[in-house]
Predict the structure.
Amino acid sequence: MVKIKINNIYFEAPEGLTILDVAKSAGFNIPTLCHKDGLPHYSSCMVCIVKDNSTNGFIPSCSALVQEGMDIDISGEEVTSLRRKAIELLLAEHRAECEAPCKIVCPAGYNIPLMNRLLAAQDFEAAIKLSMSELNSAGIMCTKCPGYCENACRRKKVDMPVSIRNLQLFISQRIIPDNLFQDMAEQHHNNDIVIENGPKKGKLPKRFTSHIGRLEETELQEWLKECKGKVLRSREILNKNSAVGEAESCMHCDCRAADDCRLRDLAEEFSIKDPRGKLVNSPITKKINHNTGLIFENTKCIKCGLCVRLCEELKEEPALCFMHRGFVSIISEPLTEEFDNILKNRSKEVIAICPTGALSQMK
Ligand code: SF4
Ligand code: SF4
Ligand code: SF4
Ligand code: FES
């Protein structure tokens, strides 16, 4: 056993444990990004940094083992400031957006990209459920809105905005009684009822949102490769096929991990603003495994290595690995494999361990 102090409280701990292990079992909270219990240490993010007052040194608590006489500060000003710097550095390289423009301007905050994904996947039941739950809580009908979402839709850059209100209307047809639907359809086509005073600011909870940073037009097209919609589309949604076709034209400008992102949570916890002038050291790419629906977006990756370590643990091959070294290192499929061939069986577990939206599932 070794005797150590954590935030001025004495503890006895078995040798071989990390500072994080001991602090956690004593009820302290230390933030982590690249650490997961049960996987080997990697210590790349430095978000878990603590100070050892006995040496005046700063150490990553997820890998530093407890030693006799340590006097650990886990929440002082210097420690907090270094953690904040570590998160800021990660964000400086993070070229992505948490929320899609259409959702940001929607007065009801409807999750339009998700609706489009569900429709494109022909999961009409899930699209209806989503629509019903959002309508219940926001109570704003798209028929009464002039279409701020369509005005902000990024698809305009390619040809024309996604016909979001028509898609909403298509879903409404399936959840709202026919007579009421007729009224709504008329209102929609007459477009004579609008929400007064524009989008209601402050309706959406204020959350950290990452900005894309210095994105070239060609990169935008590259990043949006997933978009496979037709260039010439009909604005009328007449049936399931045209609804699916229209939904497929959505470019998914949001991040699929927006509500489940450790990096975003920490940025909020430390009140960090996303830097506008981003570090650019690799082009934006999005890879899709067409067999499993696994998506990898390189500029959301913080190179924490959790996916690689989990792949090794799961012994599934071919899997994800590190490629290159230093600043230009990236997560990739092995050189000799196609992305379509990796992680045939366990991709869901690997997606779940990713602390950002770098790995996600198609739908
Ligand atoms: S990975 Fe996280 S921080 Fe990055 S865009 Fe997605 S939600 Fe935002
Ligand atoms: S392309 Fe899709 S996600 Fe992007 S703004 Fe338009 S509807 Fe929203
Ligand atoms: S893909 Fe995710 S889990 Fe893998 S290194 Fe990047 S951020 Fe970490
Ligand atoms: S969690 Fe310790 S260095 Fe990342």
